[in-house]
Each structure stands twice: as structure tokens, then as C-alpha cells.
Amino acid sequence: MHSKKKGNIFIITAASGTGKTTLISRLVNNRPDIRVSVSHTTRAPRPGEIHGQHYYFIDTEKFESLIQEGAFLEHAKVFDNYYGTSIEGVNQLSKQGYDVILEIDVQGAEQVRRTLADACSIFILPPSFKVLADRLRGRGTESEEVVNKRLSKARHEIEQAFLFDYVVVNEDLTTAEADLLHIIKSYRLKQPSQQLFIENLLENS
Ligand code: 5GP
């Protein structure tokens, strides 16, 4: 059925080092019906990052004026930089029928949960703190002190996992990707997502 069915919104959150970004890019590359919302940020682009694809890179003044205009569904300060999800960006994708992933931190997730009651929230966990520590160390040159700080921050973030609808453990990428897809597919079968179909069916009865 080709209808004007809106896509669902999925909040995906994890502590850093959990492999969230890799997992989400794998998922989205294989699924033309799922899109990741491109956030705005005031942080500088990393090598290889493209404006409009990875983020909209804007300055603090512009970000603050967007806050004033009410342009954000949620926004937060993470590591001294602003990050935010544009209402218009998400609405456009959802109206076109795409399921939309918001790859955001715990503060943003809380705001979206409050605003969009029917958004589905997913927390991605590492299999253990040992694996998380190894992944954080494996990133390269970080000192033990920095790794320990990150681990302690990760612990605080992981405490928020109790508030999420679903929890996916990223031990193996293929399994975790399949788990995410199962969640997204089962959400499409929930009654509110099927309302248009039921209405059309009844209209044509
Ligand atoms: P990074 O700078 O490494 O790309 O992202 C740092 C953190 O900011 C990650 O936890 C990421 O999920 C989060 N983040 C990225 N975009 C947004 C956003 O639009 N809103 C919020 N609240 N967090 C975001």
C-alpha cells in the first residue's frame, strides 16, 4: 500500500566506545527506508566529515539563534559543544515515510522522550566494562587518566539505560545490527503505525 504513512522516530543512545556510529552506519547502508537525522553542532569537523552529511557545522551564535527560534526538537551541550536535532529535518524525513534515527546523547534522549511520546528509545550497551575499556584504549593515544574519566562518564550514562524501551548489547556487530532491525520492524507493526492501513481497509470494505 502506498499511503502517506509517517515514519517512526528511533532514539539511539550509547556511551562512547560502544560502537554506536559503526553499528548505525551499517544498518542504514543496508536499508534505504531508514535515515539518520543530521544534527547541528558547534564542534569543528573532524577530517573527512562533510557539512550536511555528518553534521551541519555552525557557530555558537547561529546555534543560539536557532534555539531562540525554537528550531530544535532537543539540544544539549556535550563536551563543551552544542548538539541539536532540527524539528524540520526530522519532520521532513518522517513525512516522506522514512523511519528516522536520532543518534543523540542521554540528555537529548530524555528531552525527546518527553516531547514525542511515541518515539522508540534504544540504548546500546557494551558487553562488559572490560571490553569498553579496551575499546577506549584501542582508540590510540589517550592516557590512562583520560580513559578512566571516559569510563566513569560511561558508567553514569549507562545508568540511564533503565529509562529506555529497548537495550541492545553490541558484542558482535552483525548480531547487534540484526537486533536493531528487529526492533525497527516490530515497531512498524504496532497498532498506531498501522492506523492508516486499518482505516483504508475499512473505507474500502
Ligand atoms: P561526536 O562529536 O563524537 O560526533 O558526538 C558526541 C556525542 O554527541 C555523541 O554521544 C553523539 O551521540 C551526541 N550527539 C550527536 N548529535 C547530537 C544531537 O543532535 N543531540 C544530542 N543531544 N546529542 C548528539
From TrEMBL:
Keyword Kinase attached: yes
SUPFAM superfamilies in the cross-refs: P-loop containing nucleoside triphosphate hydrolases
Family stated for the protein in its record: Belongs to the guanylate kinase family.
Domain called Guanylate kinase-like: residue spans: 7-185
Cited PROSITE patterns: GUANYLATE_KINASE_1 (PS00856), GUANYLATE_KINASE_2 (PS50052)
GO molecular function: ATP binding; GMP kinase activity
Annotated binding of ATP, by residue: A14, A15, S16, G17, T18, G19, K20, T21
Protein name: Guanylate kinase
SMART domains: GuKc (SM00072)
Keywords, ordered alphabetically: ATP-binding, Cytoplasm, Kinase, Nucleotide-binding, Transferase
GO cellular component, one term: cytosol
Gene coding for it: gmk
Function, as annotated: Essential for recycling GMP and indirectly, cGMP.
Database matches in InterPro entries: GK/Ca_channel_bsu, Guanylate_kin-like_dom, Guanylate_kinase, Guanylate_kinase_CS, P-loop_NTPase
EC number annotated for this UniProt entry: 2.7.4.8
Superkingdom as given in the UniProt entry: Bacteria
Subcellular compartments: Cytoplasm
Catalyzed reactions: GMP + ATP = GDP + ADP
Taxonomic source organism: Neisseria arctica
